[in-house]
Amino acid sequence: MSDFLFARSLMAMSLAFHIVFAALGIGMPLLMVLAEGAWLRTRQPVYLELSQRWANGTAILFAVGAVTGTVLSFELGLLWPGFMAQAGPIIGMPFSLEGFAFFTEAIFIGVYLYGRNRLSPLLHWLAGVVVAVSGIFSGIFVVTANAWMNAPAGFILLDGRFTAIDPIAAMLNPASLHEVLHMILASFVATGFAVAAVHAFFLRRNPTSLFHGRALGLALAMACISIPLQIASGDLSARAVGRLQPAKLAAMEAHYRTQAGAPLLLGGIPNDATRTTDYALRIPGGLSLLLNGRPDSTVIGLEEFPRSDWPNVRIVHGAFDLMVLSGFAMLTVAGWSGWIWWRRRRLADHPSLLRAVVIAGPLGFVAIEAGWVVTEVGRQPWIIYNVMRTADAVTPMPGIAVPFVAFTVLYVVLAFVVVTLLRRQFLETDASNTPSSPA
Known about the structure:
By secondary structure, this protein is mainly alpha-helical. The protein is built from 14 helices and 10 strands. 72% of the residues lie in helices and 6% in strands. The longest helix has 40 residues, at 3-42.
């Protein structure tokens, strides 16, 4: 593998690992706050214990997320100096604001963890609210930087240099709104389903556990409310990508030829040589209808762009289909959960539903990983869309295979540590539970 591919692979691996903790860093504090809020409202001890357990898990995930985020900051400077030299003055503001949000979150996590018996219940809960809000804003600022790479704005390109830089306009670029909505909602969905899956697993073993019953209810509530909003934000995102990055949209849909009444392709294997997609299920006029609201409207195909500007269609289309499939599978589980709750007001004694929740647990993170593949690979060969190519932005280090292997080992070790610590948390919780009537 060339140094260039090693550099890209190292960055991709680091991002793929970090994004899991970034999403959990947005979703877990909200669950923590919801649990303590339920305790303030009802004074039921189970909610207080739940908030404490989720707070401990949040602290573990926050610590690992900080490590992986620091690795990414080093990689940006070492592997992508061409990009940082040009883009640094523009993305410096959102990254600085993200740092401010990160340190605010870190401070108030400390206040929340060690102030439980030193602050009034309301002040302690408000400290948790600050943690949750800071985590959300941290995600927002980072995503605006990525959105700028997809829809660059806030500068004038003069003789290959960025001039007249307006960092506010850059942050408020045309891609910011839909990317931020999609990522924040994705974090709530992924965290909600993952946490619900853990507690559903324990409920299958002990259906009378009040702790796991209440936990399942809160986590599923967050997931079930967020998933339809996420599907709607996905539709908004697809329309925006169609306007801002038509080549990416064409790759997502494996749409090679410009045509009116473009069909929507489900699945299939794209073939660049023949410009067809084999084995796909075609819905006539579906793509035109989704993008433009009319089944006879024209949709631009990849043929309108130079072959050298095409992303990898197979990867982008496959990742897009995986993301959509995962989203609709979670929507189905959410709808089933809502139906059961409406009819019975109980979830813990429905084994088939619990099994479905356990199976759906990883799907939120599968969708997030697939979505970021669509976002990043779909932008290729550009690191800044239509402004700077990826090949011109990277400066691979000699012998980069060594840090690639080293960081791979580091991430495996970190993953093992996180799983071990979280497993211990849940096993201790399960052992300390006394049977009672579940939610």
